[in-house]
Every structure is written in C-alpha cells, then in structure tokens.
Amino acid sequence: MSEAVIKFEKFYYGYINGNVVLHDVNLQISKGSFTVISGPSGAGKTTLCKSMVGIIPYYYGGRYAGDVEVLGETTKGKRVSDLSMRVGLMLDDYESQLVSLTAGEEVAFGLLNHGFAPEEVATRIKQALADVGLPGRENYQLDELSGGQRQRLLLASVLAVHPEVLVLDEPVSAMDPDGAHALYKLLYKIYQEYHMTVIVVEHNINFLLPYATNMIVMNKGKVAAQGTFEEAAAIAYEMPELRQNLPELWQVKLALENRFGIALGAWRNEEDALKELQEKFVGGGL
User: Fold this and answer.
1) DSSP letter at 157?
2) pLDDT, tens only, 107-144
3) What DSSP letter does each residue of 61-118 carry, written as one string?
4) How far apart, in Å, are the Cα atoms of 182 and each of 33, 138, 149, 171, 176?
C-alpha cells in the first residue's frame, strides 16, 4: 500500500448542539493520488475536508472521538495555521477566503503570515499567478477580475505556500460546465507538475473522470466505498442510492458488464467508451 498522507481512525464528529455528522470514519489517502470524494448531499463530505486541516474540531468545537493523522502526525494539539503550511484548503465559498484588495496582496497575505522574506514573497507571487493562468496580474484590483479569475487567484494563494496536499471542496459549484472543465484541467496540470496529493470534493464526478486515481464515497456520514477509482466505483454501483453519483459513462459501463458478464476497460472519456463498444458489440458480435 502507498504511503498515507491523511489517515482517519475510528473518527466521529458532531457539531455543537448538532447531531453526529461523521460516524466511525476509517480511511487513508495515498501520497501522490488525485482523490475525489463523492456522495449525496448531506453525506459529510465538507465536514470530512475540514477535519483534514484541523478546522474540525479545533476551530468549530463540537464533540469528537478517534484520530486524524496528516503527513504522519496527529492533528491533536496542532494549530490550523501550522497545518496550512503543509495542507492547503480551498472552500466552495471562495469569496469568503479572499481578504485583500489586489491580486498580489492576496497571494502575499498567507506568505507574510508564515514569515517568508519579502524577496521570496515576490518570487512566489509571480510564480503562483503564472501557474494559475494569471501572469502579470499582481496589481489588479479584485473587482477587476471575473469570478473564475478570483477563484484561480485563491488557488494561487494556496499554492504559493507550496503545500504537500491540496484539499478543494466543490471548487466549481458556481461555474458553468466550460469553466468547470477548464479549472479541473488546470488543477490536473498543477498536480502533475508539482507532484502533490490532490483531494477534491465534487458532486458531479463527470468533470473529474479523466483525472481521478482514487475515490472515497460517503453516505450518511460513513465511508461507503474507498480505493482506486475503479474499485470504489464498482462498490458504489452495487448500492442503488449511490449509483446515480457515479459518472454517467461508468453507470453505462457497469450496467453492461453486469448484463452481459463481460469486462470493459477503465473508460476515462467518451472516445474510449465508443471505441471499445464498437469493437465488442459491433465487431465482436456481442
């Protein structure tokens, strides 16, 4: 098994004056993976993300049991600011995470708080903005940037610290399909270039099908499936309440496998699917 960068062991959590949201969570996220976290609304996905960076339970409070380890160390007793040097977090409400007037100041904010020297800050600002497709925008006012550009700016501010793990909670929830595809394509490029571990909560896994190496499926606060994308998808397909959360191509693939007793490839796009279907169902006589 690959080295785990994040590990939950018998973890339970309930918000103050609220019900228990996470129940006996046991999971591992492998170093270097591109892991998608899926599941129905209210399954505990966002709470799980916030637990990975110590915001839960150490900022929100509440009741908890069990342990969360990040990069080999328990989050108990760790400050959120310390964890943020190694694990970057981008929430779905990205506007609430923007705190400055200009793009350059926004990227600099976290770096200066972590004590980086001014010359290092300038270098990292330039590189981070270039990485997300906003080169030379240091002096742009935030209101001069589109919503999609502000979202990429937040990604730049997280990347500038050079975290080992990047956690994103539904980062394209406010985007149209073209914008969502563009952001995930950019994220995958960054993932490959910097060899980091990426964890994404996403309701529409169709966007992530070309990129995901691993998947965790949550349901009612529990881990319903986990493993490689292929393994977790096969498990989730057997649960009618989770089947609809799978990419549409994989719903078709797994239905065909079950009906005809055949094994199909690990489809990652429509071209792969059409090619194999033509070979097996037309040329192959099925």
Assistant:
1) H
2) 999 999 889 999 999 999 999 999 999 999 999 999 99
3) --EEEEEEEETTEESTT--HHHHTTTEEEE-S-GGGG---SBHHHHHHHHHHHTT--H
4) 20, 22, 11, 12, 10
Is residue 169 packed enough to be buried (19+ CB in 10 Å), middle (13-18) or exposed (0-12)? Answer: buried
What type of residue is 124?
A: R
Q: Please list, in sequence order, all residues whose beta carbon lies within 8 angstroms of the beta carbon of residue 126, skipping any fewer than 6 positions away.
A: 135, 138
Q: Using an 8 Å Cβ cutoff, are 264 and 257 in contact?
A: yes
Distance (Å, whole) CA 44 – CA 46: 6
Whether 165 and 70 have beta carbons less than 8 Å apart is answered as yes
Q: What is the pTM of this model?
A: 0.94
CA proximity to 100, closest of 121, 78, 85: 121
Beta bridge partners of 201: 37, 169
